[in-house]
């Protein structure tokens, strides 16, 4: 009876409802059918990070509050889930909760389940936006900080009165961007917010699909920042990450502008593009310029790491390999030669 090969088999067998999110790159729901295909190795994991799938699985039985697992599962070089790891984790779960998942584990069993090698703790900002998105999707009320954050974003309290605004409140506003008047509130606040709450807000927006007027305002703010004599490159990085949820054409246009100016391509900005804006690299020309700027940054270890990460993304694999094999620019050729040397030495 306990012979389960996949997590969804276990959850389906226990009569659970469940939702699955990726927490590695952008906090993003994964379609259950797509995840089943990943579990059965019929397709690679869609958003790998450092050769792992970083997941949350929230599950519940009728009338009960959800349990949440945060899992970091290893992938092979093709991006497929390593089945042995999944099997291991299922064993931990069945030992602690039983195959029906309806017995409450003792404190000792809970500790054992929490201490297994496959669980991880997401960062505070990801945790905030994940909880906000999950509660919104399950039609549960937002946190107690939501209304205060909304009120602050009107400007009525004074823009300098941000100390009492919780990150969770900002995350709730972003997760409910299509509700009430939240998109307009956010758009109007962007040019008024002091830097500390602005950074917190940008950190939430990078996990959301942006309505067009809000994305346009963020793009304007980015253009203003890069036009000053000494742009704040950390703010540039935060703004481009926040634009990762804009529609493809706007995102690509912003990436092209940034990458056209080598002085803006600080490693922090390049890491932001690779980590959040990979959709914008699905164009061979943009991907080539990105890798050239990365090569020019002169940090070979960073070049190796980001290339290895991007080539694992199913949507970019073909493009990255094409760029790898068709280069003429000396800086990029040199970085690629060193990358290949590094790969040979690691074998």
- What radius of gyration results from the CA coordinates? 22 Å
Order the strands across the largest sheet as they lie in space: 2-1-3-4
Helical/strand content category: alpha+beta
Helix content: 40-55%
Q: Care to count the β-strands? A: 4
Counting H and I runs of at least 4 residues, what is the number of helices?
Answer: 17
Q: Quick check: average pLDDT?
A: 93
Structure, described:
The protein is an alpha+beta fold. It is built from 17 helices and 4 strands. It has helices spanning 7-13, 32-39, 83-97, 107-114, 124-137, 146-153, 167-175, 182-189, 195-205, 212-227, 233-242, 248-259, 267-276, 284-296, 300-311, 317-325, 330-346; strands at residues 17-22, 28-30, 52-60, 67-74. A 4-stranded antiparallel sheet has the order 2-1-3-4. Strand 3 (52-60) and strand 4 (67-74) form a beta hairpin. Helix 12 runs parallel beside helix 14. The longest helix has 17 residues, at 330-346. It is flat, with a radius of gyration of 22 Å.
Features:
alpha+beta, four-stranded antiparallel beta sheet, 54% helix
Q: Topology of this protein?
A:
Layout: H1 7-13, E1 17-22, E2 28-30, H2 32-39, E3 52-60, E4 67-74, H3 83-97, H4 107-114, H5 124-137, H6 146-153, H7 167-175, H8 182-189, H9 195-205, H10 212-227, H11 233-242, H12 248-259, H13 267-276, H14 284-296, H15 300-311, H16 317-325, H17 330-346
Antiparallel strand pairs: 1-2, 1-3, 3-4
């Amino acid at each position: 009876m306990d012979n389960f090969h996949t997590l969804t088999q276990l959850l389906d067998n226990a009569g659970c409802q469940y939702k699955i999110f990726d927490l590695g790159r952008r906090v993003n729901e994964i379609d259950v059918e797509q995840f089943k295909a990943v579990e059965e190795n019929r397709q690679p994991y869609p958003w790998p990070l450092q050769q792992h799938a970083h997941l949350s699985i929230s599950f519940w039985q009728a009338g009960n509050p959800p349990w949440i697992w945060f899992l970091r599962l290893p992938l092979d070089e093709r991006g497929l889930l390593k089945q042995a790891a999944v099997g291991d984790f299922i064993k931990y779960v069945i030992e602690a909760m039983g195959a029906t998942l309806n017995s409450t584990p003792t404190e000792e069993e809970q500790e054992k389940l929490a201490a297994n090698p496959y669980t991880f703790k997401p960062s505070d900002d990801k945790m905030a936006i994940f909880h906000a998105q999950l509660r919104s999707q399950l039609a549960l009320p937002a946190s107690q900080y939501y209304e205060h954050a909304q009120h602050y974003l009107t400007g009525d309290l004074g823009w300098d009165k941000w100390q009492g605004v919780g990150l969770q409140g900002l995350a709730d506003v972003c997760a409910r961007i299509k509700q009430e008047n939240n998109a307009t509130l956010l758009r109007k606040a962007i040019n008024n917010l002091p830097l500390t709450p602005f950074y917190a807000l940008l950190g939430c927006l990078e996990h959301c699909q942006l309505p067009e007027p809000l994305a346009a305002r963020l793009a304007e703010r980015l253009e203003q920042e890069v036009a000053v004599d000494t742009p704040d490159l950390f703010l540039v990085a935060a703004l481009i990450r926040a634009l990762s949820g804009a529609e493809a054409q706007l995102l690509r246009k912003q990436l092209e502008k940034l990458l056209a100016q080598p002085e803006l391509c600080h490693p922090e900005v390049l890491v932001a593009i690779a980590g959040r804006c990979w959709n914008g690299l699905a164009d061979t020309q943009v991907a080539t310029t990105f890798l050239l700027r990365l090569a020019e940054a002169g940090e070979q270890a960073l070049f190796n790491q980001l290339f290895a990460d991007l080539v694992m993304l199913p949507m970019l694999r073909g493009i990255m390999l094409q760029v790898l094999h068709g280069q003429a620019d000396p800086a990029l050729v040199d970085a690629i030669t060193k990358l290949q040397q590094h790969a040979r030495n690691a074998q």
